[in-house]
Amino acid sequence: MLVLDEQQQAAREWFESLRDRICAAFEKIEREADSEASFRYTPWEREDAEGGPGGGGVRGQMSGKVFEKVGVNVSTVGGRFAPEFAASIHGAAEDPRFFATGISLVAHMANPHVPAVHMNTRFLTTTKRWFGGGADLNPAIPNPEDTDAFHARLRAACAAHDPTFYPRFSKWAEDYFFLPHRGVARGVGGIFYDHLECFEPGEGPTFEENLAFTQDVGEAFLDIFPKIVRARLGAPFTEDDMSKLLEFRGRYVEFNLLYDRGTLFGLKTGGNIDAILMSLPPLAAWK
Questions:
Q1: pTM (global) more than 0.85
Q2: Comparing C-alpha atoms, which of 172, 160, 182, 200 is closest to residue 261?
Q3: CA distances (Å), origin 179, targets 88, 113, 187, 216, 253
Q4: What is d(CA 102, CA 55) in angstroms, rounded to the nearest whole number?
Q5: Alpha carbon 249 to chain centroid, angstroms
Q6: Which domain holds residue 242?
């Protein structure tokens, strides 16, 4: 069993509470669509490379009328990075010991007019402590109203903490969620941030300040995405719309397997394979 300090426990509890509320909100949408679909929860454990306790997590997944496949995972893991991987992690080059806790969510929707979405926030400890994450909207058929509403809600969450956050983090998302081999964006963006470092009071942003921002990102997602789903779930669609959806999902798969940091982190730290790859859609197509 991992031994957590006060900050690690506070972050873990927040991610788990956010998971519970998001899953309840998504199940409520399914009930409104006369669906009895519910999340299935599967706990998993990992062993550290040196044989010690490595933590674990809970994989939550649901398939319904509205959410064709949605995964909401929380993990809390620790141990030592492999030497070659430690060199690429903030604060781990000299000391490979690490702790990480976070929530990861990906939703693939049945109606091609309802955008897929990704949200992830996390807290990591090496020789440094920091938060990272964000949220981004991934429509197969973009709707400017949805894009504007999603960005406006995230902009407001950022503005409550630092006027530079939204310009910086939306540009970061634009650059990060991009498929260079195809020269196209994965979706319509959102925000992405990493290495939001925590300092002692008077030396820089504190754990409490960065946790508060990360909490507001989660609250913003929980506020805006269900509204977008409800606005689009009854939209009529054609076979051509479905073809666009499946082709878009192919691009999504390419990004997650080739470029996604979370996928790489999970695989390199011995995470649960099903939880790591829950982001992949149930159906996709390539021309």
A1: yes
A2: 172
A3: 21, 22, 10, 28, 11
A4: 12
A5: 17
A6: 6-278
Residue 230's contacts (CB-CB under 8 Å, 6 or more residues apart) are 29, 32
- Residues 6+ positions from 206 with CB-CB distance below 8 Å: 198, 199, 200
Residue 195: active-site member:
no
Closest alpha carbon to 172 in 135, 205, 145: 135
Whether 173 and 193 have beta carbons less than 8 Å apart is answered as: no
Rounded alpha-carbon distances, angstroms, from residue 278 to 7, 11, 22, 89, 221: 28, 23, 16, 24, 19
CATH of the domain at 251: 3.40.1500.10
Q: Which two tokens stand for residue 130?
A: 């920091």
pLDDT tens for residues 33-48? 999 999 999 999 987 7
Q: Is residue 284 part of a domain?
A: no
Strands (E), 168-267: 178-179, 184-185, 189-197
Q: How do strand 129-138 and strand 53-62 relate by DSSP bridges?
A: unpaired
Given 108, 113, 118, 151, which residue is catalytic? 118
